[in-house]
Write a sequence for this structure.
């Protein structure tokens, strides 16, 4: 259960901002989420830099090798049909990668990881954990990613070519409803973080 608290210090503008973060959002109204810092909750980032750590505008904190951010988790909790289109760059070797988790916050999330040479798709939840699918990519520092989500399937294309997909188990569609989160990882000694340069939601 979630609750929104109003205290003596709450301003009308602040209350409206919080209500906007909670109000249900249609996928078509999400637009270009990377341009709106207030729409993100960032894990592993004490300054709550929002999408800046995902786009390369703000460096992650020292000693960090992984940062993830959730996009409006309350407003997107009922999403069942949507498509994400992302462009990423600065992918180098196996030391760094980007990730997209769809159906985030549900009982059946699906996590995509994309590196310079490979991509992997891993369903979570009771009936999918560990069932990892991979595909080889033409080695490149930049990739274009499309992730399509329906109640029955998550399908991934990269650089315009089909990559892989996972089918849903025998559970109700509502159990897999949820929005998305993004992450970036860099375990290299030279600290060369990958980044998202474009993200649209349909």
């Amino acid at each position: 259960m979630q609750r929104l608290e109003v205290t003596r210090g709450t301003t009308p503008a602040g209350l409206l901002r919080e209500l906007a973060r909670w109000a249900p959002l249609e996928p078509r109204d999400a637009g270009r989420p990377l341009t709106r810092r207030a729409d993100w909750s960032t894990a592993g980032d004490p300054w709550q830099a929002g999408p800046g750590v995902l786009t390369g505008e703000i460096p992650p904190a020292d000693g960090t090798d992984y940062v993830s951010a959730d996009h409006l988790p309350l407003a997107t909790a009922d999403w069942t049909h949507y498509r994400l289109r992302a462009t990423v760059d600065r992918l180098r070797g196996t030391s760094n990668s980007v990730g997209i988790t769809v159906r985030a916050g549900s009982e059946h999330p699906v996590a995509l990881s994309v590196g310079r040479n490979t991509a992997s798709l891993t369903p979570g939840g009771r009936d999918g954990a560990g069932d990892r699918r991979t595909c080889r990519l033409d080695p490149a520092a930049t990739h274009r990613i499309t992730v399509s989500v329906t109640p029955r399937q998550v399908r991934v294309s990269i650089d315009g070519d089909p990559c892989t997909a996972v089918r849903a188990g025998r559970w109700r569609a509502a159990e897999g409803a949820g929005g998305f989160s993004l992450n970036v990882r860099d375990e290299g000694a030279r600290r060369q973080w990958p980044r998202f340069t474009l993200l649209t939601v349909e």
User: Anything to note?
Assistant: The chain has a mean pLDDT of 89. The radius of gyration is 17 Å. Helices lie at 12-22, 52-55.
